[in-house]
Amino acid sequence: MKPRVVLADDHTIVTEGLKALLDPEFEIVATVDNGRAAIKAVRDFNPAVIVLDISMPQLNGIDTAREIRKVAPKVKIVILTMHTELSYVQAALAAGASGYVIKHSASVDLLLAIRRALSGHTYITRGIVKNDVDALVRRSRRARGASPQLTSRQREVLQLLAEGRSAKEAAAILNLSSRTVEFHKYRIMQQLGLRTSAELTQFAIKHKIISG
What we know:
- The chain has about 210 residues and is of the alpha/beta class.
- The chain has helices at about 10-20, 35-45, 60-70, 85-95, 105-120, 135-140, 150-160, 165-175, 180-190, 195-205, and strands spanning about 5-10, 25-30, 50, 75-80, 100, 125.
- The protein has 2 domains: about 5-145, Rossmann fold; about 150-205, Orthogonal Bundle (Arc Repressor Mutant, subunit A), CATH 1.10.10.10.
C-alpha cells in the first residue's frame, strides 16, 4: 500500500506537477490551497505525510505545521517553498517539519525528503544551510518548547487581518464573532505596542506570518 500524502499549495500548477512527480510512489489523497484546509485534510484523511508551502492564505505553512503537530503528531511534515533564508528553515524545524525543500529543486529533492521523513530522519535542500545540519535540527527542536509571543489564535487573527480581511471576514473564516476578532486585534496591538493597522501588517511581514 502506498503511503498517503496531502499536498498544500495555493498554486494549482504546482500541485498538479507534484501529483505527477509523487503518484508512482505515493497516494495523493487531497490537495488544498490554504493552511486551514490543510489541517482539515489531515484530520479527514490521516495521511502519512503532508507537503506544505509556507506562503499560503488564511494560515501560513509554519503555523499550519504547529497546529498539525498538535492534532496529528505522527504525520510527517515536509515544507516545500521558495524561501531560502535560514530563519525560515529554523522556524519550520521548530514547528515540527522533517523536511525543507526549495521548489526549484523539488524534482530532485522532494521524493528524497519524503522518504527520509518516513524513515524518521530530517532532510534539507543542500546549499541553503551552511552550518552543521544536525546541530540546526537539535537547536530548532529544543525551540519547540518555547512560548510564542502570540497565541495560535492571535496568530490566526493577525494573518487574516494583515492579508487585508475585515474583522467580519476574519470572524467568518474562524467561526468567531466580529467582536471577538476585534478583541483579539486590540490585545495583539496592545501586547506588541502597535498603533495602526499598517504597523500590524509590517509586524506580520517582519515575523514571516505573511510574505511581503
